[in-house]
Amino acid sequence: MGDVRHGALESAFTAEVYFPMRQYADYARVALVVRTSMSATQLGPAARAALESVAPEVAKQTWSPVQSLIDKASSPRRFVVLLLTGFASFALVLAALGVYALISYGVNARRQEIGIRLALGAAPGDVRASILRGTLTLAGGGMVLGALGAMAVAPALSGLLHGVSSRDPVSLGAALVLLGVVSACAGLLPAQRAARVDPSVALRDG
Asked: Where are the domains positioned within the chain?
């Protein structure tokens, strides 16, 4: 038959061969697997009725859907992944707040410069685009360093992954896109504020 994972969901596939049970009298335990379109609640009584006259000891056993066994095997890993997701979400919020605070500080520090540019004829849209370019440039440098660091430590997390490699380009690309969008949104409000600077007020304050 097809290859089977024996130890854990993330273990490597191994070859599987089935032999008739009567050829081996020293088997320790037997698992009966039934493929059916019936629900779990319907299968139990139907299977017990069919096995009662053939194997009464087997008929008395409990029945569980295969999916419940898979969920039980993966529950420790699922908890760790949910915990890491929570920490990652918190870190993402902190990163967004950090970008917003830094860009806001930069806009306030350049208030007089922005006022002069607007007084000399710069369009508010150009000022807004300039602030956003600076935001994305700053975020881009951080994302490059973060991606290199993630690729370096990813093999250590391979035991938590199932069905995806530790350096999956789609996952890494999605994370970078998410960080780029969050950074752009964090820098959008300071950029909007910079575009609305009153040149006369900025020059007078300066």
From this structure: 31-63, 74-205
